[in-house]
Automatic annotation (TrEMBL):
The chain crosses the membrane at residues 21-40, 60-82, 94-116, 164-188. It is a multi-pass membrane protein. Keywords: Membrane, Transmembrane, Transmembrane helix. Coiled coil: none annotated. PANTHER family: TRANSMEMBRANE 4 L6 FAMILY MEMBER 1-RELATED, TRANSMEMBRANE 4 L6 FAMILY MEMBER 19. It comes from the Eukaryota. GO terms for cellular component: membrane. Belongs to the L6 tetraspanin family. InterPro entries: L6_membrane. It is found in: Membrane. Pfam families: L6_membrane. This is Transmembrane 4 L6 family member 1.
Length: 215
């Protein structure tokens, strides 16, 4: 393909990828914020009874801020350069590639931490005597063996057995809340990684050909 055609494709791709990443980054931050407020209640965050992986906020700094920085630049440059003859797009394309690499790393971190949070299960108030050799009710991770810090043999399939979810007494519905939002973060971050990788390639092509369509 001719350099002009490549430049047009690079510009069009930027104007698609940028807004998509803006939406995904915003959704990632919203999902992580909701994880901090189970059932919409703030008292568990105040009391410190929130999953450590939710408090790590990977959806805010990883799938959110890092992605939004790249998305804002990609979107702005993509539209600003539509139809122009010369606007320094090779430099901007290089910057977008660098920011996209940061977005890729942030989304990857979000993906990993969300996966661990989903596997370990939520922090909740549960009856230990019904779950293991422990006694009484306490705050902890009922689907994680406290001694080995690995998934408990009885609870390793909790994602597929909803009857086990009732072990968590408080917050009400915390298992479904945790599973739903961490699964959403996994989906969002996976999509962000694909788009960020595409934009890295797009930015590299932009460095070579530019993406001003009026050349």
């Amino acid at each position: 393909p001719s350099p002009c055609r490549v430049a047009m494709c690079v510009g069009k791709c930027s104007r698609i990828v940028g807004p998509c990443l803006l939406v995904l980054g915003t959704l990632s931050m919203a999902a992580n914020i909701l994880l901090l407020f189970p059932g919409g209640a703030s008292k568990y965050l105040v009391e410190g009874h929130i999953s450590k992986h939710a408090k790590a906020m990977p959806g805010i700094w990883g799938g959110g801020i890092a992605v939004l920085l790249a998305a804002t630049h990609i979107t702005a440059v993509g539209w600003r350069c539509a139809g122009c003859s010369d606007c320094g797009t090779r430099c901007n394309a290089f910057i977008s590639a660098v920011l996209s690499k940061m977005a890729l790393l942030g989304a990857a971190a979000c993906f990993v931490l969300s996966g661990v949070g989903l596997t370990n299960g939520p922090l909740c108030f549960y009856n230990a005597s019904e779950h293991s050799r422990g006694q009484g009710t306490l705050w902890g991770y009922p689907f994680l063996d406290g001694s080995s810090r690995e998934p408990d043999a009885r609870a390793e399939n909790y994602l597929y057995d909803r009857q086990m979810w009732s072990i968590c007494l408080e917050p009400v519905g915390i298992v479904a809340w945790n599973v739903g939002l961490f699964s959403l973060l996994l989906l969002i971050s996976a999509t962000e990684m694909v788009l960020a990788s595409l934009q890295i390639l797009n930015g590299c092509l932009g460095c070579l050909c530019g993406f001003c369509e009026g050349k």
